[in-house]
Amino acid sequence: MSDWNVADLPDQSGRTVVxxxxxxxxxxxxxxxxxxxxxxxxILAGRNPAKVEETVAAIRAEVAGAQLExxxxxxASLSSVRTAAAxxxxxxxxxxxxxxxxxxxxxxxxxxxxxxxxxxxxxxxPFLLTGLLLPQLVQSADGRVVTVSSLFHTFAGKAPxxxxxxxxxxxxxWRVYGQTKLAxxxxxxxxxxxxxxxxxxxxxxxxxxxxAGTHLAANGQYGRSSGGIATILDAGVKAVSQSAEAGAxxxxxxxxADLPGNSFVGPGGFRQLSGRPRTVGRSKxxxxxxxxxxxxxxxxxxxxxxxx
Length: 308
Ligand SMILES: NC(=O)c1ccc[n+]([C@@H]2O[C@H](COP(=O)([O-])OP(=O)(O)OC[C@H]3O[C@@H](n4cnc5c(N)ncnc54)[C@H](OP(=O)(O)O)[C@@H]3O)[C@@H](O)[C@H]2O)c1
Fold this sequence. Notes:
Helix 4 packs across helix 10, helix 5 packs across helix 10 and helix 6 packs antiparallel against helix 7. This protein has 308 residues and is α/β, with parallel strands linked by helices. Helix 5 links the parallel strand 5 and strand 6. It has 10 helices and 8 strands. 49% of the residues are buried. It has a single domain, classed as 3-Layer(aba) Sandwich (Rossmann fold). The site of NADP nicotinamide-adenine-dinucleotide phosphate has 32 residues, from helix 1 and helix 6.
């Protein structure tokens, strides 16, 4: 399927999609934009209401009559995830949840739940959100969970299977980021396996954007995407990467193409850094089913939710 083209996105009328992390100029924005263009009702779930409104306005400027709703969601807070899921409970069936939001390379810090920030935002929050929205994904009768991982999953070193509320050894921010992206692949594999075993009509897939010009690096390093050195880093990333628009294609393909559960979609170009999307492989560590099962149990305990 390396000839996948965004122009082939099927009509999305009557479908409801939740996209996390829809900040303007990021992958979530472009994922939401293309789905709205095809007629989907898109729920944009972000932690900063002003930024979400900015994206809503930008999409409406391009897509007249776009059906967009804003949802407040801070993935680094388990209670915020529960509040957001309760707020979205009345929207009815959800056809696709795109777990897109994430942070990268942040300094060591712990959330109010006692979790390391990158693992909380990139894995435990999405794990809880997915579980809480699962009944609505099942209602769709053809639900999908698309989780945005990264080539960085290959830098994890080892699986994050220790006590998530304890720090053992030195904190290596890039290795931990890699572990969160490995966790995205474990979540996808184990969720899909459990969905099959429970005979539920939902698939779990993963995507990665290669290297795309978004605010991820500047946000992680400086906590902002503009102003002084953050502007310089943002511009530097954009100069050497593919566009955020193209970075969203793997998520869009995973959300809409006829692919089996546990597929991983990434760019088909040189070293998967850019290009048209296709299904791609994953590291040997990411294929370890026992690790995926153990992380699932740790996540159930941590988020205090067992599913499916
Ligand atoms: N860009 C790349 O080359 C690349 C490569 C591999 C993987 N990825 C993955 O792609 C995904 C999207 O990143 P991006 O590149 O589009 O970067 P981005 O523009 O920085 O977008 C990240 C989004 O996540 C949101 N977010 C961060 N912390 C959150 C929290 N606690 N609760 C809710 N939302 C939160 C951000 O909101 P704020 O704007 O409010 O901070 C933003 O909307 C991430 O999962 C990232 O790991 C990106």
